[in-house]
Amino acid sequence: MDIENKTYTISIYTENNIGLLNRVSAIFQRRRINIESLNISVSEIEGVSRFTIVVEMTEDQIKKIIGQIEKQIEVIKAYYHTDEETIYQESAMFKIKSDLLFEEREIQNIIKESNAQIVTVNRDFFVLEKSGRRHEIELLHRELSVFGILQFTRSGRIAVTKEPMQISQMLKAFNQ
Amino acid sequence: MDTQTIKQKQYLEQPKERISGSEAIVRCLLAEGVDILYGYPGGAIMPVYDELFKYQDKIHHVLTRHEQGATHAAQGYARISGKVGVAMATSGPGATNLITGIADAQIDSTPMVCITGQVPSHLLGSDAFQETDIVGISTPVTKWNHQITKASEIPEVIAKAFYIAKSGRPGPVLIDITKDAQFEEFDFQYKKCEGIRSYKPIPETNIESVKAAAELINNAKKPMIIWGQGVILGKAEEEFKAVIDKTGIPSAWTIMGASAIPTSHPLNIGMVGMHGNYAPNVLTNECDVLIAIGMRFDDRVTGKLDEYATQAKVIHFEIDPAEIDKNVKTDVAVLGNAKESLELLLPLLNKNSHQEWLQKFKDLYAFEFEKVIKDDLHPTKEGLTMGEVLKEINIQSKGKAAIVSDVGQHQMIACRYAEFNETKSNITSGGLGTMGFALPAAIGAKMAAPEREVVAIIGDGGYQMTIQELGTIFQQKAAVKIVVLNNEFLGMVRQWQQLFFDKRYASTEMTNPDFITIAKGYYIDAKRVTKREDLANAVSEMMASKEAYFLEVCVEKENNVFPMVPSGASVSDIRLE
Questions:
Q1: Which of B147, B199, B322 sits opposite A73 (nearest CB)?
Q2: Does the keyword Signal apply (chain B) (predicted)?
């Protein structure tokens, strides 16, 4: 068993019910584990939600956490994966003064090289959106900080696994 | 047409009736077989109480004197009957007063459904009068909870609540119902819950793991079993007894497992844990195979984990997958219900007797007897001991009483020395250690099993935490026997202060009221015993009483409970003095 802290992505398939976020986050809270990021969305299965949670801990700890999560009545199944086992992305938005876009050629180059998208431009500001790995977003943040960022926000990680998850078969078996 | 489809069709063909949400709640309870519930009325739950008035010939509502009493009574009811206990309260303070009992039920796996009233849905989140977010508050201490804001949700949610509370590893469920949902009328139909897709109450038992367990057990030279409440909750007492009778394995119990087999069983080697017996604690660190059945390796059982049974192969029979490897690493985990797992295990086991190994337990028991038990049960010095009171109760009840104990020194004494001849006879607050548990829990236990003698063993501290439930006992004519072992101290804390805080008795000495006058004020027969020569007659009089009876026994002020595994120490470092 690996006793070193690692980054793990937890994927939880759940019923879409009020209060479940509380139950899941309380499991981390009472063990004093900091959640690095958390995202909840619809999943590939109709009516089933998917939590994507990023945490740093040992494999021994995460196995216990997964056990506690799966105990929750409305949790259908929980999985954990290392970075190598997933394909993952984050998304960030930068709000920047419009003058800079027209006056600073370097900003135009940064936007182009980073593959960021301009979401909107008006007289006062423009908004950039960048999706990618954390380090790519952080690089863009560093480069743009020199010029001044009016607002910045970054989403939680979303991830899919390289190996298939057996969740659909599980649900099918229940319905039979 | 299969059975499921026929049932579904019958359900759909049932005539719908237009009734209020509050009547629906009562009808749902009736459909779940509830005939008794414990609670306390108030503004936000009044429509339900109004319906209960109408249905009082079918459901008996017990008015406790505090909502905490309602939950503990429901726990006592559930623990002795194996059925779901039901408690009810209004919103706000009524609901928050349930929390201690809910937390207690959660950690001790007790099936309970709590129903709380809530402010009308249009006032939710507005800090309305007596509004609290009870769903948020109770989330970490419930197996499941849910808020209902529409009457039409009531049947399905209550059906789910009962299914969840009693299935798999049981636990408490809280349903919060807004007042407008209680008034709203809708077309009522009820169907019991038979499954929830995201919830698998009992994991499948893997036969390979059972075979692996059997092989380890068959090859063991010094095997030892520790069983917990899972044997009782899984109704596996017979299967468990068959396994130990066939294999001859010395078997110890956690306090939640007590009474699953009789105290006198020759392979019953006593209690493990902080104040457990000497032999099973010490020999946990000598056995070669440790077989845990329906127990969760609580820290009060294991002591220092790094030094707990490190020499042994560990087999864990468990219904809750999250308990596997949580505290103690297992070599073989057998998931599933204890009854079914042990049924599968039994034919794979070789007949055996471990006489030499068992003798080691007997030798250490003899040592413990000389050092501790003799003085506890047969004292020669003047002051009365808690142990001799328990011994007298054993004699008078012939070991048939259900013992409901509170929390503290007397609890450990009760668990150590009470004789249990029947299963579900030890009702105590194990995991949460809730002082104030016993008096209301005894009410519930007596109501669930009126034919049984129910004796509550309580300390003077815990007794005063829920002493108002004497009112419930009097009003309900609940014939519980209450024994307060009065040492005018918060005894267990005082013991710790003596042993680990240089006898600085900070806030543990109690100046107590006249308990006899208080009991008599509630019209309960009462007697105080201060001398050994009066004890037997007093216990005899108590046991002969057909009504509730209060017995105060003034015991030695500074008696300690030994053996003791100091907090954080290894189980083999258990102290006898």
A1: B199
A2: no
